Amino acid sequence: MKKIVFNLILLCLVHLGSAQNIVCSLQDKEAFHSKIISISDLDNQEIGTNMVAIGKTFIGTPYVAKTLEIGETESLVINLQGLDCTTFVENVLAFGLMLKNHKKDFDSYTHYLETIRYKDGELNGYASRLHYFSEWIANNEEKGLLKDMTSEIGGLESSKDINFMSTHRDLYPFLKDKDNYNKIKSSEEFLKRQSICILPQDQIEGQEHLIQSGDIIALTTSIKGLDITHTGIATKEADGRIHLLHASTGSMKVEVSQLPLADYLKGIKSNTGIMVARPL
Q1: Which keywords describe this protein according to UniProt (predicted)?
Q2: Torsion region of 60: left, alpha or beta (phi above 0 gives left; psi -120 to 50 gives alpha)
Q3: Angle made by CA atoms 227, 59, 209, in degrees to the nearest 5
Q4: Domain containing 49: what range?
Q5: In a 3-state reduction of DSSP, which class is residue 220?
Q6: Which of 20, 246, 252, 256 fits a disulfide with 63 by CB distance 3.0 to 4.6 angstroms?
Q7: 276: closest CA among 225, 226, 222, 203?
Q8: pLDDT number for residue 202
Q9: Longest Cα–Cα distance in the chain
Q10: What span, in angstroms and rounded, lies between the C-alpha atoms of 276 and 228?
Q11: Which residues contact 70 (CB under 8 A, 6 or more apart)?
């Protein structure tokens, strides 16, 4: 209990240039500096190699859900001590951009994280967060940060009504606010008109040779109203196969899947396939 109180006392609010707040504990600020030191020797490597190497520095970090749902207004939450599958990928990509652009300062890190996490790179309330991961991929492609490779590796076009958040309003505390709810509904209407490419589960093994280490993998789903249930980073391991480096809900920590990606997905009943995005 004392530790929890101590951590709350250390919680700090800092202002971004866009007049939004950053929520960050002193422990996370220290974790940022430690991470910069631990990845500094990766500076001259290719971004896909860096993505895997950076991701593996998080191995063992606890899986923690809903780390971004803090306070009554949307803030840029920095949490390097507990990650869900999306914040894991976001942080790895942010540190990858740090290396690519030879940056080591905290302000650059928060800038990259805001750019990745929010529509058009700007935090402007709860609805500006890229909640649906297919939109996360599309918006970050527009920013020039990555490329959706799914169609190029054999993906098939698919359309689906995306409305999980609005139809499960009680699961999202911020949706108690009518304005947030209406904006999310508008985003869902936009997504409803967009199609995405999916590489079907039964074709992944045959196309595995086209997936590169460092690619971002998003797991598509048959769950009504939802596009993506999980995400991680592709890594070619010693067996020559692509595995998933991810914040796992099974082990409740960041790990590399024991099974190759294609076999791992067969154990997920609702999985329909994957999307693949390549950092640029």
Answers
A1: Signal
A2: left
A3: 55
A4: 22-279
A5: strand
A6: 252
A7: 203
A8: 96
A9: 54
A10: 12
A11: 23, 77
- Please report, for residues 37, 75, 79, 130, 274, the alpha-carbon distance to residue 27 in angstroms, rounded to integers and kept in the order given: 15, 18, 9, 26, 35
For residue 172, the SS3 value is coil
Domain total of the chain: 1
The CATH number of whichever domain residue 60 belongs to comes to 1.10.3670.10
CA distance from start to end of the chain: 44
| Tokens coding 126 | 């709860």
Residue 39 lies in a domain: yes
Query: What are the pLDDT digits (tens) for 27-83?
Result: 999 999 999 999 988 866 789 999 999 999 999 999 999 999 988 899 999 999 999
Question: 275 near 199, Cβ under 8 Å?
Answer: yes
**Which has the closest alpha carbon to 214: 268, 145, 112, 157?**
145
DSSP-assigned letters across all residues of 112-148: HHHHHHBGGG---SGGGB--SHHHHHHHHHHTTSEEE
Residue 253's beta-bridge partner residues?
62, 248
Q: From CA 232, how far away is CA 92, in angstroms rounded? A: 10
What is 87-107 written as a DSSP string? HHHHHHHHHHHHHHTT--SHH
- Specify the long-range contacts of residues 120-126, CB closer than 8 Å, at least 24 apart: 122/18, 123/16, 123/18, 123/20, 123/74, 123/75, 123/76, 124/20, 125/73, 125/74, 125/180, 125/183, 126/73, 126/74, 126/174, 126/177, 126/180, 126/183, 126/184
SS3 content of the chain, % helix, strand, coil (to 5): 45, 25, 30
The residue to which tokens 């999916």 are assigned: 198
Q: Please check whether residue 17 lies inside any domain of the structure.
A: no
The pTM (predicted TM-score) of the whole model is 0.92
7 domain residue, yes or no = no
